[in-house]
Amino acid sequence: MLKFVLKRILMLIPVILGIVLIVFTIMYLTPGDPARLILGEKAPQEQVDVLRDQMGLNDPFVVQFARYVGNMLRGDFGRSYATNIPVAETIAERFPKTAELALAGMFLSVLIGMPIGILSAVKRYSILDNISMIFAMLATAIPAFWLGMMLIIAFSLNLKWFPSSGFDTFRQMVLPTITLAAVNAAVIIRMTRSSMLEVVRQDYIRTAWAKGADQKRVVLGHALKNSIIPVITVIGINFGSLLGGAVVTETVFGIPGLGTAMVNAIRMKDNPLVLGSVVYIAIVFSLVNLAVDIIYALIDPRLRE
Amino acid sequence: MKRLLSLALVVMLVLSLFTACGGDSAGTNPGGEAAPAAPSGEKDSVIVAMNADPTGFDPQVTLDATAMMVMYNIYDTLVESDGACSSDIRPGLAESWDISDDNMVYTFHLKSGVKFHNGEPFTAADAKFTIERAMVEPATASYCASIDKVDAPDDSTLVVTLKVPFANFLMNLGGSFFGVVNEKAVTESGEDYGRNPVGTGPYKFVSWSSGDNVVLAYNEDYHGEAPAIKNVTYRVLPDTSTALVALQNGEIDALPNSAPIDAPTIEADPNLNLYSAPGATIAYIGFNTQAAPFDNEKVRQAVKYAINKEEVFMGAQDGDGVLANSPLNEVMDGYNPDDPVMNPYDLEKAKALMTEAGYADGFSCSIKLAAGQNREKVAQVVQAQLKEIGITASIETLEKGTYFEQMAVGNYEVYVGGLNWPDADDMLTYLFASDGPFNWGSVYSNPTIDELLVKARQENDAAKRSEMYQQIVKITDEDANKIPLYFPNQYFAAKNSLKGVRVIDNCYYPVASWSWE
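Predict the joint structure of the above. Result:
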């Protein structure tokens, strides 16, 4: 097990380097001059050229790339072009909010999604099942920004139960978490339901019924354990991407997370911040995948090789 | 059993969502931010919304509007000119000044006893450092083009010598980019100065939580009148709809640059006030005057007569603002509402000109614009109007970076542009000078205009200056190299108990002049 984990962590290094090369190349090739975007529309071209020189943007691609990787390997992710704040600091400052939002959203979606998914599978075609399928369909179709705005208008403006933005106090967290959880809950419901349905039709479940086992034990004990692997996959992937920042939710609710920081950095062609964020997300995502794989092994003895 | 337990957990969680964790209702005192500033509703604090995270508070480096909004409260300038928007010059850090007869040497007599937020005394050396810094930093160098040298013969005298007389020199000195910095603080902080600003203004910098908020607190050693408001918090709210709800809920006190579309909602709310002023951002259509068919003056004029500005104004802006017959708005030198004609729409004349130019059958072209500034709607209305004279225009909406790259090399035919300047010199130079930054791809060049611009810049008599600008407007109306459309209004929404608010520029909001009723 330990060897497995170590091997996966070592594999991170070529993955990160590959990602850095790809993103760096994309940023280099896409149109848009960071110096121009910093100084704005009104700056005369001569000043833009002076800034380009200062920023080392006129150096050939290989020189710029080597410089970046060299610094990165020494732990220096550079300073943001726009704010001149060290990239590592900005990421460290913005990440906690995103992590909190992701955790809260994930927790709520699992809390809602799994029980409903299980019940739907067990009571297939019942009213509960139909309702939850409709809910799942709606939640997947409704755009997050619309849902967020509607929640704000209904619960913040009209009912005045919750504040409309921010993510510090518990009450501020409610609406954004619900917005985020809605879509994920839908996915989890459907995944849980379909996975459970497959398992519930297996022979060993029939045997358990036949042996007279209590329903709860069959469902939660046998069926759930066997059907949970695809669900964990889905949860893992969603969680990983949420950690990259749910940009739309963050923007609507004014949450200073990593998602908005990254999108702004991309718009401003703030290369150091974009690259730093991408490296960071790649690492986090890989670790989440690793965690998911470890959980597989823990749940399914067949995978413990 | 397990199922009952999980059900119970869900119910408990749902219930706990609705219990107050502090007892305040969202109506009177919501939010409870982790920020150290006092919450809204207290009479010496104010919470202002920002639509983006600022990129730093170094006046000679940062030019984004949200940063400037904050910097006008942290820093003072040598003279006050409403953020370089007003020619009514008032003393700032300079109590008085003498101008030499040839208008080239300005001698400023500086206020004494002024201290920076870090306790250091303000001297002419800091003013000299500030201006010399502005002359070399890429963001501000173009504002210092007329400055030759700066001297500080003693601690309270500053002498600035110009290369040529420059009528707007004093007005410019009131801009954020000339915010006076402390030489010691800048040298010591080095690259991190942007996060540790030190000024002489009524408010000192307390903290900046990236993407979240900026907090300022009253400067007890302020050299001027003590402001009524002691604590300022700027909250980052990128979504205008959320910001509006926050204002309506009382979570914030002021919303600068509120969206025009929210104006009716704000006006209908008995607790809110909507302030508006004509803006100084001209929306216009530009042409590549070196590429056929727009190198033909008749074709450009045909477009001029084909565009019904009223329609464009209503369609793109909901009539919110004023029509423009030139890039000059009512406060600028040279403004004349009667000449040229405000809306020269004349479809027959347009068609006749097209035939004269040899394009009776029309042609196709592309209209370029940068995404995200309401310019799409302008392009759509213009596209429909051009169809009437046989021009089939396709709209190319480009991402900002791509847009700049293409414009800079002259890769465009028609474009929808916007430019914001509070004075005629900058506005007309940018748009019409041969080396004007908005002469994208250097396609336009008129030596008469260049000459007039230089003469006007050095002319101290406002009447003579106005005449020259009017001449320029006439020439450009004739050759139609750019078609001015309208000036959108600027809005500011706030709780109606907040007094002292003036809307001048999109970022000049000195909190020191505000107070609670």
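The first strand of chain B starts at residue 45 and ends at 50.
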